[in-house]
Amino acid sequence: MKPKIRDIIMESPSGKAEDWLSRQKDIEWAKSVSERPAKEKQLSDIGVEPVRDTGHFVDGLQQLKKSRAFVGFMESCTHCGICIDKCHMFISTGDVNNSPVGRAELVRKLYRKGKRLKPAAVDIRKLYTYYYQCTECRRCSVFCPQGIDQSEITRNVRNILTEMGEIPEYVAATMAQVYRTGNNMGLNAKSVGSVVNFIKEELNEETGKQIDLPLDREKADLLFIPSSADLFVNTDTLKGYTKVMHVMKKDWTMSTFTTEAANFGIFASEKHLRDFGDRVVGEAVRKGVKTVVWGECGHGWRTANNYVRYELAKKGIELTHVHQMTEKGIERGIIKVDRNRNDDLYNYHDPCNYARGGNLINEPRNVLKAVVRETVEAEYTKQETLCCGAGGGLLADEKDWNEYRAWAGWPAVYYAWKTGAHHMVSPCAIDKAQFPHVIGYHKVELQNHGLMDLVGYAIEI
């Protein structure tokens, strides 16, 4: 490991750095730490009939040769190594297979065999392990001289693995919840309604005003899509959304049919990505709305911005992000804020899929600067931002995996901590679940927030 990388690990105040480094005894040690594979029942719940024949992977790889992008990624790597220390997974594990070039090489070796590739040469367990340790953050593509995007290689490989039934239990179980209830948390319509009523009561008590949080309203202008985590754990984020809608006098609604900004389909296969996106599009059409507004979720916004947007456009419906709407409200003086209510130093962390997959960089920064007293930038920001370490479906709550993802997320927290800020602002549902875990494990003095939480605290009703 390069000294700088080792220093990042050693500077953890957790007191666990030496033990963590001592585990890195061989080049493929991380292969022994992987998420539990989905069971047959869970695969059935997401409509996957597994093909356990390794020959299916061989066939799938041959089909990928029809993709100009995939072929380009396979053919253009010069093994320069520039990407290696840019990858948070390599920084945290030191396992070369957990670097973009190392992970791609696992498939490139098979690809180069061409029609000579035999099923016996394919190690499905190794591919499963390392291709589900990629967080699909796309940071490698920013630094690669050839523009190779490991995230897209990962997505192509996972398409095949998903067809084979090789998918983590956490990802499959989360997807099953969406097919069943319309959200990752598995909240049914009654549960969503209970949360909404509770939040409305709290808002009315806090503000002394009658603030509506409309649910299942027909013919509203706007359909708002929150992360289901905003209904369950990040309720201050939900309050921020609601206050913005209130002061901007929006005619809006949420729908119990689709209360999920996240899209775990991107972590499994293109089919599932489209299924979940189409669910939102169908509901927007049924509701007769003019605009769909997306809540705080990084990978969810990436799929919305690059798929849902165009499907909505076919129906004459626009798509926007709540940060974009909030920025306009502040700029036009419709939203009035008191930044003294957030009187401290805040560091904005760019979610990977906002900065590298969703064209959402300046708007959240402008909103943050309007609602807090002082901001500071970390060393790596915007397109160069470091991943939280739990993207790509790595948020699984398993004993061994919890420690693994605590180190995977440490580089991002490390650079936020080094700014001297007391608050790390990360407006992504996975960030908001991951960073408190990483911060707590490493014992650094940081608080983590969503951006709309802070808007909610500062806004004048």
Question: How is the secondary structure organized here?
Answer:
Elements: H1 3-10, H2 17-22, H3 40-45, H4 55-64, H5 68-76, H6 88-93, H7 100-111, H8 124-131, H9 139-143, H10 150-163, H11 169-181, H12 189-207, E1 222-225, H13 229-232, H14 235-247, E2 252-253, H15 270-287, E3 291-294, H16 298-313, E4 318-321, H17 322-331, E5 345-348, H18 352-355, H19 362-371, E6 374-376, H20 399-408, H21 410-417, E7 423-425, H22 429-442, E8 447-449, H23 451-458
Parallel strand pairs: 1-2, 1-3, 3-4, 5-6, 5-7, 7-8
**Overall tally of domains:** 3
Largest sheet: 4 strands, parallel
Q: Quaternary status of these chains?
A: single chain
Q: Give the neighbour order of strands across the main sheet.
A: 2-1-3-4
- Give the overall average pLDDT: 96
Q: At the third CATH level, what is the topology name of the largest domain? A: Rossmann fold
Using the coordinates above, name the CATH class of the largest domain. Alpha Beta
Using only C-alpha atoms, the radius of gyration works out to 22 Å
Shape: globular
The N- to C-terminal Cα distance equals: 53 Å
Parts with pLDDT < 50 across at least 5 consecutive residues: none
The percentage helix is 40-55%
Count of beta strands: 8
Total count of helical runs of at least 4 residues: 23
Structural class assignment: mainly alpha
Strand content: 5-15%
CATH hierarchy: architecture of the largest domain: 3-Layer(aba) Sandwich
